[in-house]
Amino acid sequence: MDGFGVSLAFWVLAAITLVAAGGVMVSRNLLHAVLFLILTFVGVAGFFVLLSADFIAMAQVIIYVGAIAVLVLFAVLLTPRASRDNGETRWALPGVLLSVCLAAIFLFVIHDTAWKTRDGVPQGLSASDLGTALLTTWVVPFEIASVLLTAALVGAIMLTRSPEEEAEDALA
Amino acid sequence: MTPLFLTSDRWYDIRDLGNLSRALLDAADKILPGGVVYVLAALIGFVASFLLFVLPSQLIIGVYGERRIIGRMQSRLGPNRVGPFGLLQPIADAIKLIQKEALTPTQADRVVMYIAPIIFVMPAVLLWAVIPFGENMVIADIPVSLMYFLAVSALPVIATFMAGWSSNNKYSLFGAMRIVSMAISYESPLVLALLGAVVMSGTISLSGMVAWADEYTIWMVFVQPLALVIYFICVSAELNRTPVDIAEAESEIVAGYLTEYSGMKWGLFYGMDIGYALAASGFAATVFLGGWTFFGLEEWVPGWLIFIAKTHLFYFLFIWTRGTLPRLRADQLMAFAWKFLLPLGVFNLLIVSTERMLWAEQDYAKGLIYVFALVNIVLSVGLVYAWARFNGYRPERTPTRPRLVKQAGGYIPVGERP
Amino acid sequence: MTGIIKSEPFVINIGPQHPSTHGVFRIKATVDGEKVIDAEMVMGYLHRSMEKLAEERTYTQNIPFTDRTDYLSSMSNNLGYCLAVEKLAGIEVPPRGNAIRVIMAELQRLASHCMAVGAFANDTGAWQTPVMWAFREREKILDIFEVTSGARLTCNYMRIGGVAFDLRPEFEPMVRRVLREFPPFIDEMEGLLSENEIFIARTKGVGVLTPEMAINSSLSGPMLRGSGIAWDIRKADPYCGYEQYDFDIPIGYNGDSYDRFIVRLEEMRQSLKIIQQALDGLPGGPFRTEVPLALRPPKGEAYARIESPRGELGYYLVSDEGPSPYRFHIRPPSFINLSALKEMTVGGTVADAIVVLGSIDIVVGEIDR
């Protein structure tokens, strides 16, 4: 992972991602915050590309930007107007204190760990490796996850049915 | 990738324009320092694919050709005043849009409104980075090109949403949300349809698909006709084209997400609509129609010409359905996606996985794929018909002619003889 | 756990500027999410006070007014008015005049239904392809009108006692051409639209009008016939010699927009039959009885009605033996047909409301007069 281009890409992506993450916290308008979140996701996808995990990078964009960000947008929009302001709150000071403590813990751990670097280009995870893993070693969590998602889908539909539609269903 | 046919490596062999660009880059590498040649490669790629091919195609075929063809379908001439045969019409449109005043409402969110068209342009440009025009003519031959397409097609959804929200107009927000929900409903069948193609060819990269088509001398469309049909419908929905264009149509009533856009901002939306449609057509041509190969013709005719012809052929299908079919209602659209297309995609995946397994056991015999093609065509037709009937589609119950009576009488209920 | 996500009803305005060609007409729809809860019609944008103006003019001078009420079927409007005046004054029309009147009225029905069918398909979203094809056929009919009366749209051709001018020699070949080229066009429209899945999904079950509702709202025309009621004034109360022609009345099945569409298509076929018979049996002789310029009909009142392309068009005239009518009232079919709009749209979506409005086939000129 050497080369001028790679280092440049890393620093640029890091800057974009961190600025976007900061924007999520700082922006007053909730929708601006969501848009910055999308930028953060894209930055993380860029990091995956740097690590030669191309499948995961694309999956990151498809899932996070294409589905989860849209979900967050819908959720933000369907709530009443009053809570759309990312405004002042009395939890600001405790939040800051907590994040300073967490940051301190992380920094100590990062400093004290013996990081081993590996030479050469990292072995990316190819799609076929992932597929094999998902369907042989990790098949049970895979199936449970799909059942969970189906349950969530059915539950969401149930929540939004109006009373007369429910009555219709009960009779049919 | 092993050379599949007889090309020379000389720079003047235009059957493979990659030779030309490679010669240029080699020459440049001797002059320029370090990694700057990569930037030059990207630049050449961008100029060659986007500026020289896509933009003129977009303008000529997309703006001018589409209006002329739809005009002929409606028994009228299309634009034919500006320039010879009206060919300068897109230029005239572009000039008009540029000099128009792009109004922004005072209460609207200016920054987001400004950025939305830019994000909308991105997929139309980014997609051309992975599509192979010829053997060495891919800008970025990544091993997951198909997923790149899916990833990039998530961006217009966000751009649409930003456009609708920043207009500060209750109805454009409403319209934008409806479009976003439609776009994400049609993403699932799209992925399933493409998954069928992936399973059959065993590779996610586009160059791999073209190599598969060349090796087994069959196009994916014959092996997976249902996948192509589902892909076509879903991509029409992603592109907001008729018959699923509730963006433009419902805007009669709910003032869609584009109302507050005028001038070149709207022009960007409109133009990149066509650009993205061309990219989707190019993508379909690569995956389903065999890319730049044509059963051996590519030794004589340059591969990129074949590819361009196939792209435009597929784009003609878009124009054709736009000129002919009426629009579906929004809730009918979503019902269609979830209840009809998604199960069809799942069935298709089941069939294709079984066939791939059988094929692997036979050590990928070449003759077997033709058998699979025949079986798949028959099965697709049967599956569509059976699933439609299962969903309650009974065409024989709809009479297309009214009853005729001779005398003016009273009320004649349905079922009695008039 | 239901009802947690509430949506608030809000009022949107459909109109007064429509993208489709129905004219300046406004519906204030109260919409809850997707469903229409209430629809209130606001009309009057095109009011030109024709009925009052007619009291200042002689009977013959009022004929151009009737052109402009329902500007898409001017020949039929003229015909109704002339019938009312003839009833009031007791004037007989010669058989040639009657035959020419019948041909013109049926040609006008063809032209108006072309427009109605095309605009309806446009409302469902078939991006103007059916409109262009329908207008291509309508051009032939408008050329015939121009040759005969001098104007394409507001013809002002009927006179009290007959028609204004005799038929020119170019008339018959042009009508024969229409008779030859129209049936393939109707087949084309059927192939494109009536059997089109998307069109059927868009229009079937949309705007259902039960027969009781239709009769209670005193509807007429294709709306009434689409609900299964066999009532056509040409058969029930014939005028202008319609009883001598052999034609059928198409009636629908369920009273939804699709039925009204196919009823209109079939009516076009029947009109072609009538024109064929009238043209083949065109009698000779005078085409108009002479009537004084300032006609003074005896005191009384008369109501005459015809089957215009939109329904029953009625004219009510009261005379006080002056040169101008004392009272001139038009019973416009579109205005009466609209009274059923609310029942048809409530419960559907906004897109359905547009489709229903297209299937009623209104012309705002005659709603507001």
Automatic annotation (TrEMBL), chain C:
Assigned GO CC terms: plasma membrane
Q: How does it sit in the membrane?
A: Peripheral membrane protein
Q: Which InterPro entries match?
A: NADH_Q_OxRdtase_suD, NDH1_su_D/H, NiFe-Hase_large
Tell me where it mainly resides.
Answer: membrane
Compartments, as annotated in UniProt:
Cell membrane
Which class of enzymes does this protein belong to?
translocase
Task: Give the enzyme's EC designation.
Answer: 7.1.1.-
User: Which residue ranges does the record assign to the NADH-quinone oxidoreductase subunit D domain?
Assistant: 123-369
Query: How would you summarize the oligomeric state and partners of this protein?
Result: NDH-1 is composed of 14 different subunits. Subunits NuoB, C, D, E, F, and G constitute the peripheral sector of the complex.
**According to its UniProt entry, what is the function of this protein?**
NDH-1 shuttles electrons from NADH, via FMN and iron-sulfur (Fe-S) centers, to quinones in the respiratory chain. The immediate electron acceptor for the enzyme in this species is believed to be ubiquinone. Couples the redox reaction to proton translocation (for every two electrons transferred, four hydrogen ions are translocated across the cytoplasmic membrane), and thus conserves the redox energy in a proton gradient.
Q: What PANTHER family would the database entry show?
A: NADH DEHYDROGENASE [UBIQUINONE] IRON-SULFUR PROTEIN 2, MITOCHONDRIAL, NADH-UBIQUINONE OXIDOREDUCTASE 49 KDA SUBUNIT
Its family remark reads:
Belongs to the complex I 49 kDa subunit family.
This protein is called what?
NADH-quinone oxidoreductase subunit D
Q: Which organism is it from?
A: Tepidiforma thermophila (strain KCTC 52669 / CGMCC 1.13589 / G233)
Query: What gene, per UniProt, encodes this protein?
Result: nuoD
